[in-house]
Specification:
This protein is an alpha+beta fold. It has two helices and 18 strands. The structure holds calcium ion (4 copies). One calcium ion (CA) binds next to loops.
Amino acid sequence: MGRWASLVLGAAAGAWLAAPAARAGLPAPPVFKWQRCPVAYCETGWYASPAAADVDGDGQIDALWGGYTLLAVNGASGALEWSYAAPGGGRIWSDVAVSDVRGDHHLEVVAAFYGDLLVLDGRGAPQSGWPKQPFAGDEMRTLAVADLDGDGAREILVARAAGVTSQQWSVLEPSGSTRAGWPRRQPADPGSSAGCFNQNLAVADLDGDGKAEVIFTTWTQKDSGRAGELKILDYQGNELASVALPHAAGHTWGALGAPTLANIDSDPDLEVLVGTADAGLVAYDLPGTGGARVLWGTGRGNLARTAPEPDALASGWVGLLALAGLAAASRKR
Ligand SMILES: [Ca+2]
Ligand SMILES: [Ca+2]
Ligand SMILES: [Ca+2]
Ligand SMILES: [Ca+2]
């Protein structure tokens, strides 16, 4: 290798060596871009994470969030596109969902305002049939959107936080009517449960028949003497399976959070993970689910809560290793 070629290669190798170190350091601090509150005042915000999607189809991403008033904000400028406060004035606990609820290739925004459930179009107008109060005023802290029956329109799944022993989970049609078979559990259903406090369900077509199943766990209140359960219901609310969760001696609490669907071993079937109130983390095999289609696999979005693949960092190291190999090969010449 000539001297100049070695210098060029050395400089390139130096750049590659420097690159991973720069990537490994802290990024520049966040630079303030914009802030937007409802017109009247900045309300108290709760647990909802903002959504980002072009809901009005103008080519500009909109940011959606609210404490009590749902805001749609132009992502580039921070200008308020529209806002909506539910008639009941309720707070927004669950993450806002953005989905083509009606199956008409336009995005809708779904939000639960305490006891009021709303479907709004991309310009903030409530759709016909909404709002609805699925639980006679109790707060909804679970919201998911999935096409349960495979007809292209998305159903809306909700659950309420309340000290009640039945009718905590429900499914509403895009029209606003409650789907036949829901809410569950009904008082005569087997098992026991109390309220749902944080995004308490998952949705998947476990057997690949085009109809989605709803998977949730029950919590039975401290020292209730009742076993919490892992339940699988079909899209019509019929119970397909129910197993008692393990529990510590003298306790029968169940689980407070959402189950998580994932393939965590070497077989093709899904497993379901449950974090229990008093018996740790529990995993169940779901036999015959190798062709499952997961629609809502855990409490909030995806399994890793949107951690990106480290492809940029990996490609940097791959490049460094390739260059090191090239340099080694050149030295042998
Ligand atoms: Ca837009
Ligand atoms: Ca549907
Ligand atoms: Ca199915
Ligand atoms: Ca597996």
